[in-house]
Design a protein that fits this description.
The structure is a single chain. By secondary structure, this protein is mostly beta strands. 3% of the residues lie in helices and 56% in strands. The strands form 2 sheets. Strands 5, 6, 7, 8, 9, 10, 11 and 12 form an 8-stranded mixed beta sheet that branches. A 4-stranded antiparallel beta sheet has the order 1-2-3-4.
């Protein structure tokens, strides 16, 4: 549905790349939407994901990769790793964020959580221009196609029950 910019937000909008963008707080649609005005001052509300579940909490015993995830326009990502149960002898979990080369279709690691051996909740920030900190903050733009990759090691059937969630950062 198109709405006139002046009627919708009392003229509160700023030009961005040839379009007008209104602050979500000026509209009643909620903050999970982008508000764009075209050249004819018509308002378009586009839903934009902010929180995503990448892996639900289940017991994992094997090395694997997650599905490709498509980023439409986020600059970065704040990931949350929640490990609730760990079993086995000297179990280890390595969790990486990988981006996909669009030409060769190969994956390259852009960020990693510190190796885990027990339960806990951790975060990993991937955002351009951030001050880097080993296994916590990575200065990198979030690519269009990316995925998670995890490696489970140890003996006596090492098992990690974990979930991964994320917030897109625009």
């Amino acid at each position: 549905m198109a709405v006139d910019r002046d009627t919708a937000v009392d003229g509160i909008a700023t030009p961005v790349m040839g379009r007008y963008v209104a602050s979500p707080s000026t509209l009643s649609d909620g903050e999970k939407d982008i508000h764009l005005f075209d050249a004819y001052k018509r308002l378009y509300v586009v839903s934009k994901p902010r929180e995503i579940t990448l892996l639900t909490s289940v017991a994992r015993t094997a090395t694997a990769t997650g599905s490709d995830t498509t980023n439409v326009e986020a600059k970065g990502l704040l990931l949350f790793l929640d490990i609730t149960v760990v079993t086995g002898t000297t179990p280890t979990l390595d969790l990486d964020v990988q981006w996909k080369d669009p030409v060769a279709s190969k994956y390259i690691t852009i960020g990693s959580f510190a190796q885990q051996t027990g339960t806990g909740t951790l975060d990993l920030l991937i955002y351009p221009g951030t001050v880097e900190s080993a296994n916590r903050k990575v200065s990198h733009v979030l690519p269009v196609t990316w995925r998670l990759n995890w490696t489970i090691g140890g003996t006596a059937t090492p098992t990690f029950t974990f979930s991964v969630g994320a917030n897109y950062l625009y």
